[in-house]
Amino acid sequence: MKLFRIFTFCFVAMASVLAQEASISVGTNEADRRITEKQAELEERRQEIELLTLEAQMQAQSRALQDSVRLNKFFGYSFFRSGPVAAETGNAMFENLPVPKGYTVGSGDNIEVLLWGQTQLQSSYPVDRDGRIFVPEIGPIDVSGKTQDELREFLKKEFVKIYATIDSKKDRTYMDVSLGTLQSINVQIVGEVRSPGIHTVHPFSTVVTALTQAGGVDTTGSLRSLRVIRDDELLQEVDFYDLMLRGEQTTEFRLREGDLIMVPVRLSTATIKGEVHKPGIYEMKPGESIKQLIAYAGGLKFTASSVVELRRTRSWEVRNNDDDPIEIAYLNYNQLNPKEIVDGDVIKVHRIMSVSKEVIVNGQVKRPGAYAFQDSLKLKDLLKLVGGINDEDFIQSVNPEKVDIIRRDPNSDYSKVISVKLSDILNDRQEANMNLNNHDQVTVYPNLKFLPARTVKIFGEVLLPGVYPILSDFETIESIVVRAGGFSSRAFPEGIVLTRGGQRVVIEEMKNTMKQGDEINVPEKSDVVQISGAVYNPGLISYIEGRSVREYISFAGGLTPDANKNDLIVIYADGKVAPRRLYMNPKPAPGCTIQVNSRPVQTPVEQLLSFLTETSTTISQILASYVLLTQIGNLMGAQGSG
């Protein structure tokens, strides 16, 4: 009875200690849980910030894409760079260009004078607001309105007054005049542009470069009726289609200080789509026709039909609320009259109807596929075309008894099949060598007795490695090894690896039946055992006959604390797997692998429950032994007293 009390006391004490540890663990788990929740909350906020940032980026990209689509939908507007260009950036484009011949000197320009020879001089003279330069030895000189060639001759005459050797034939002074920094000009750009106002541009600027610096013409503006006004008078009306479509340099005249570029609203547009090279929306001038619109769109594709569809919205002056505002007309391209385009017209050039004329050949022929159909095409002619029937070797792989023709039946929902013999076709029997119809499908079948040989590959430690045909349905690993000359002296038959379709197949005493594509690998003899998993020093250990699994584990440093000694397997060289059964370990063999698995990780509560279970089991066993011993003692005492 005392022993029972002692065990009970020990059990209660251990349970109390473990309960305290579990309580501490639970407290720790609660703190860990709060930290985890806080981290999760911070992570959620971080993801929200990333999502908002991503949405903002996507919106910006969407706006850019919409702007790009808008520019590309209307022809010509993408010609200009998107967004205003700074005057400094725009002017930089001209800095390395030579001065045009017709350029005239004006205020703000710098004139470079260079003398060499008898006299040396290098000086720069700015042109003032009155168009004059000041040379100290000469005084003010009016140079405004002169071209570079005129300026060179004029200044030579002025400088010879103080440098007489310029005209001397002996001890001569040479003179050169060039233009240095040029003064920018101010141009006013108004109307439908992306950045209207006064723009400072380079003196070489044209209408194109000036509008580029202003961000280009907006899609509401006209590309074909721009007006350049100089000194309150119309200098020129510009049509950018001349430059964009025909390469005509009608816009290449230079602007001057105070010029005004007026971009009016686009008044008339027409849409063209379908079989043209550049579908889109084009600006049209009064009097232009459908053919001119097609020409602007790059002309017709080779797939275009002669049918041109015109959709026109009736003018608001001639329609009422009950009318269908859309008029549709189908016109012949070859008979188009110079019909004037109206604002809002939609032109569609239809595609030619694709009506194929072909027959299809499948199966055991050299060149299967689709072939052009022609009237009076016969079956034998087609088979000659696809190749094989005149090849004595290839014809043996073709089934001579059957060729199928699948033909559409206009009176049925299903096709019908016409079967003929290939031998009859080759012998020119009229009923077999029939005329084909458009869209027939011809199937030529293989000769099943003439299929390519099925093969297996054997390599490794055999005398004649290579590829061997399967001679019967009962071909085995053993028979293939025999045909390969048998094993070499280094062969390890117990470790043969059979691979089928990329997967290893477990070998049954070399009796496995061979299949097409099988691969047999005969490895070299192995004198090691590999041990892996929950041991201190996994690796290769020399095989010694009679050594047990426990001994190999001992050589590998023994089991780690998390090892599950009841969960180990031995994988043999032939692919078979032997687990530990009850208290018996599998027997090791050369080339095998001993795998020791780990116990699953337990939580503190699971550890407590496991400990209590093991402890209660042990106490129960001890108590059962105590009761048994007590009964034996009582029985022996009773016999002694008797």
Anisotropy-based shape: extended
Helical content class = 25-40%
Note the beta-strand portion: 25-35%
Biggest β-sheet: strands ordered side by side in the sheet: 7-6-10-8-9
**Structural class estimated from helices and strands:** alpha+beta
Please name the CATH architecture of the largest domain.
Answer: Roll
Q: Kindly report the average pLDDT value.
A: 84
CATH class of the largest domain: Alpha Beta
**Major sheet characteristics:** 5 strands, mixed
* Helix count from the secondary structure assignment: 11
By CATH, the topology of the largest domain is Outer membrane lipoprotein wza fold like
Give the beta-strand count: 30
Spatial separation of the terminal alpha carbons: 25 Å
Sequence stretches where pLDDT stays below 50 over 5 or more residues: 82-88
Q: CATH homologous superfamily of the largest domain?
A: Outer membrane lipoprotein wza domain like
As a whole number of angstroms, the C-alpha radius of gyration is 50 Å
What's the number of domains?
8
Q: Which key features would you list for this structure?
A:
five-stranded mixed β-sheet; 30 strands; 8 domains; wza like fold; Outer membrane lipoprotein wza fold like; 11 helices; 642 residues; alpha+beta; 27% helix
